[in-house]
Design a protein that fits this description.
This protein has 457 residues and is of the alpha/beta class. The chain has 2 domains: 6-222, NAD(P)-binding Rossmann-like Domain (Rossmann fold), CATH 3.40.50; 255-285 and 320-451, Rossmann fold. It has 16 helices and 13 strands. The protein has helices at residues 14-26, 40-50, 61-73, 83-87, 106-123, 143-159, 182-187, 198-211, 224-255, 259-267, 290-301, 310-321, 323-334, 360-370, 419-423, 436-445; strands at 6-10, 31-35, 76-79, 93-96, 132-135, 168-171, 191-195, 218-220, 341-345, 375-379, 402-405, 426-429, 449-451. Strands 3-2-1-4-5-6-7-8 form an 8-stranded mixed beta sheet, with helices on both faces. Strands 10-9-11-12-13 form a 5-stranded parallel beta sheet, with helices on both faces. The radius of gyration is 24 Å and the shape is globular. The structure holds nicotinamide-adenine-dinucleotide.
Length: 457
């Protein structure tokens, strides 16, 4: 086809993959090529896409429709062979969905930054003056202007023999929420963006307004650093909002208050409707690192040494330690945790996703095992990869001193009728998992059924 666009996507983690599938689905006349790393993880992802599958498990029913339509169109290829870039025409669109990790030491972060920039240089190697680059990775604000735009400018100059040196660059972070609504979180969520000039803005708008075809879907910021900041602030706000509840959980536990009911009433006030819930803290890849990027940007990119970014950076520490609150409750109830058999139900960081990065329940299990000498078994019937001590359980024969429910959707309701649940000393709901009916059932079944946040037991 004459106007067939060539779209390259780099990094097919959950974010790159949802980009690749949704863009190939919406732009069925275009060719999408997704690039992965040349390693075991990359190979697994590529093989799944080659088989016409989405490489990550998700409970989103809409995902099947999107994946099937792409399979039918045959317009998505996944590869780790960067050589094919040279064999093709210059790409129309290049999308970077790599991950930039955060390290607390300056040296390690510099190594990570260099690795990222080197990888980025591979995907832009064949750009010309009409190629639009869209970077979606969460970055310390200032990163694009300091590293990525100069790199793209150098490449463009080389590719056009000095004729052009201003690449068409845009930064537009994604707002994907893996799990039950991953497709809608991509296709129906407004997208914030910023571009380096009028031409890139025009191209960006034309490309994304067809993918997100609803009113006011594109929110423009004037400056690329502003847009990078928007992402980091958005995630820092969320992480801080969660961390804020930690001290109120400790307070309410000491005073034996029902914090859940208090919060329910606070949420009714429109200005306070998004106050968070008591829980195990924060998991996943983003909220556990992005709040550090504000400080990193301030100190290392813009060289303002004095700013500590107290709220954002402390949110990470508080969220990591939030687990201790739950450990205290288990310890109070079982008196001594040594050799106690504990079943943790749900190991992913989010319901409906198979991501276990920084999973709070796995961390809870690790602490119970290593610090307290407990015998921990995990159960999760959604997570399908192999893991030590996972699903080695017979619900009709085994005994556990405590069953800790961590993730909704990680078990089937018949588990609740099993002997394990009937015989255990303590059942703890750490994540507002059960509705009123099941709560009443469990209360009748076991006198030690505790819901995190309700300390009137
Ligand atoms: N996971 C989420 O829920 C989520 C949500 C919102 C935003 N984000 C942000 O989106 C970005 C991507 O997140 P993710 O979870 O998909 O990360 P990820 O680490 O899972 O994905 C990155 C992928 O890039 C691949 N890769 C590494 N080197 C490569 C190379 N040279 N060429 C091609 N591929 C290469 C890796 O194998 C990996 O699969 C991050 O900045 C993250 O903070 C993630």
């Amino acid at each position: 086809m004459k106007n067939k666009k060539l779209i390259l996507i780099q990094g097919l983690g959950v974010i790159g993959s949802i980009n690749a599938f949704c863009i190939a689905h919406k732009n069925y006349n275009d060719q999408v090529i997704g690039f992965e790393a040349n390693d075991k993880i990359g190979d697994e992802i590529i093989n799944k896409i080659k088989k016409g599958k989405f490489p990550f498990k998700s409970k989103d029913k809409k995902l099947r429709l999107v994946v099937n339509s792409v399979k039918k169109n045959k317009n998505l290829i996944a590869t780790n062979n960067y050589e094919i870039i040279k064999q093709n025409k210059s790409p129309d669109i290049v999308i970077c969905c790599l991950a930039l990790k955060y390290f607390s030491t300056k040296k390690k972060q510099m190594v990570e930054n260099s690795k990222f920039i080197k990888n980025f240089s591979q995907i832009i190697q064949n750009i010309n003056h009409k190629t639009l680059i869209i970077v979606q990775t969460s970055l310390p604000p200032g990163f694009s202007k300091k590293y990525l735009i100069p790199m793209a400018s150098k490449t463009l100059k080389k590719n056009t023999k000095g004729k052009f040196d201003v690449p068409l660059y845009s930064y537009s972070y994604e707002r994907v929420t893996p799990g039950h609504r991953i497709v809608d979180s991509f296709l129906k969520m407004q997208r914030v963006f910023a571009c380096n000039n009028i031409k890139s803005k025009k191209l960006f708008k034309s490309f994304f307004s067809k993918i997100l075809n609803f009113n006011n879907s594109l929110l423009e910021l004037d400056d690329i650093t502003e847009c990078e900041t928007c992402k980091i602030l958005e995630n820092s706000y969320r992480a801080t909002n969660i961390a804020f509840l930690n001290e109120w959980m400790d307070y309410s536990k000491k005073l034996k208050l029902n914090l859940n009911k208090i919060l329910e009433f606070i949420r009714l006030r429109p200005t306070h409707s998004n106050i968070r819930y008591p829980g195990l803290g924060v998991g996943g890849f983003c909220l556990t690192k992005d709040p550090m990027f504000g400080k990193y940007s301030m100190n290392e990119i813009f060289k303002f040494k004095y700013d500590k970014f107290n709220f954002s950076t402390n949110s990470i520490i508080i969220n990591r330690n939030m687990i201790n609150h739950t450990i205290e409750i288990i310890n109070d109830e079982l008196i001594n945790l040594k050799k106690k058999r504990i079943l943790l139900v749900g190991i992913t960081y989010l319901d409906g996703s198979d991501d276990i990065r920084k999973s709070p329940s796995l961390e809870l299990g690790r602490i119970l095992k290593t610090k307290f000498g407990s015998d921990v078994v995990y159960y999760d019937n959604f997570y399908s990869k192999k893991l030590q001590n996972l699903n080695k359980i017979n619900f009709e024969k085994d005994y556990f001193d405590a069953v800790i429910f961590c993730v909704k959707g990680s078990f089937q309701n018949n588990v609740l009728k099993s002997k394990v649940i009937k015989k255990t000393k303590l059942i703890l709901d750490t994540n507002q998992i059960f509705d009123k009916k099941i709560t009443n059932y469990l209360k009748k079944l076991n006198k030690k059924f505790i819901i995190l946040g309700d300390y009137k037991y």
